[in-house]
């Protein structure tokens, strides 16, 4: 092997395997699509509710969503996660955390929650935070960490409102793309 | 080219482009300075308020900040973001999320929020969490993720209280340094 | 040095110092074990309390934890951090943030908090989020960022309930393993 050939080969090897500029490529190392189902307590559905209003602005109560696009409502949830969009499918885990309605003149929320997965396929947790402009078809939030099968993972989750029924039920489709995976 | 020269050159190339020890250098790959403006609802400013108290300890209400350094108050906000410190400048986005006053004997808050940027310069979101010891001049919180133009970014945000008026208004200067950028 | 030898050596050098597949190894670059102590306000312990209920479902108050496994209670805290399990040890910092009881049929919480460390050994903050299935002996949450001595760090924290007294006091042991350290 002559030197120039060796040099070119090695330069390619180094370039393709490291990130000299600190910038990294957008190619998912893992992908997961899941659904979760939120049934908000409204004073009448105690048996089925998976979420409850726990914070509200002055003058509002905690069984009826607040005026002005629910601005100021804080809800806590423990929602079933399913592999498809059927509320009655066997859950593969729970989505646990909170959402906060944070705008007066349109419907937006701030999300902080965790997927706690417990199935034959997946064991571990995935942690999310981000802004949810609900009226937009697909919204991106951050996957900021994970444990178990998702040890140290980071990525982006695209969420879509797959269905809703009045103020009581909504179903979200969550398309999780991990861009940072660890062994 | 002789072998020793080639070896030295290649060693340098490898050393400078990867992180053999798992430790990484502190050099920002992107920097952004923005301001946001919070007007807290106090029972009289419904038209202008961009934030509201939605949680409070027993005995406190939600139009007056709580005693003992506001301990226990939870506020939800949707605040305009501007490029300079002028409240009347055209917003380039919204800061959305919550702050929680969490100490009884000094003024500190816990922050969870998102910058939703929507301007000719920037499209995307930046997600923050961290402790805010308000009486300290400059406080560092974590940038834990981003979307759009800030896809997968991480960094540190240094926040300073740029101005405030009583209990109703404050303006924060946010100096965001990204240390992890993705293409 | 002959070419084949050089090639093999350089291939090893590149392979061991970069992550061609985007997958990274699980070896902690730093480890820290700390304890924190939470005294929840119950209407009688104002002088000692370090936490307070600030959100509750309809029908519940904020001095007594809610029925159904505290579902819907939001607590804000500023708890002392110690190096050992003694509540009276000199604190090395404060744990500040919130916990949210989010399940109706077992005891689980969602956590968002920060360790603010201020001692001769450590100066800086560590930011955590995650689900806490309290009845499980050891639970893993995400370390999503840090500042100061913990600049840009990420990792996993294993939390254990080290002690508790009724509804008023609990002590958590937090075993933090950082897998991403920065200089």
Automatic annotation (TrEMBL), chains A, B, C:
Q: Which Gene3D superfamilies match?
A: Allene oxide cyclase-like
Q: Which residues form the signal peptide?
A: 1-18
Pfam families attached to this UniProt entry: Dirigent
A GO biological process of this protein is: phenylpropanoid biosynthetic process
A GO cellular-component term linked to this record:
apoplast
Q: Which domain of life is it from?
A: Eukaryota
Q: Where in the cell is it found?
A: Secreted, Extracellular space, Apoplast
Could you list this entry's UniProt keywords, alphabetically sorted. Apoplast, Secreted, Signal
Q: Which family does it belong to?
A: Belongs to the plant dirigent protein family.
Function summary: Dirigent proteins impart stereoselectivity on the phenoxy radical-coupling reaction, yielding optically active lignans from two molecules of coniferyl alcohol in the biosynthesis of lignans, flavonolignans, and alkaloids and thus plays a central role in plant secondary metabolism.
Task: State the oligomer form and interacting partners.
Answer: Homodimer.
Know the name of this protein?
Dirigent protein
Q: Which organism is it from?
A: Deinandra increscens subsp. villosa
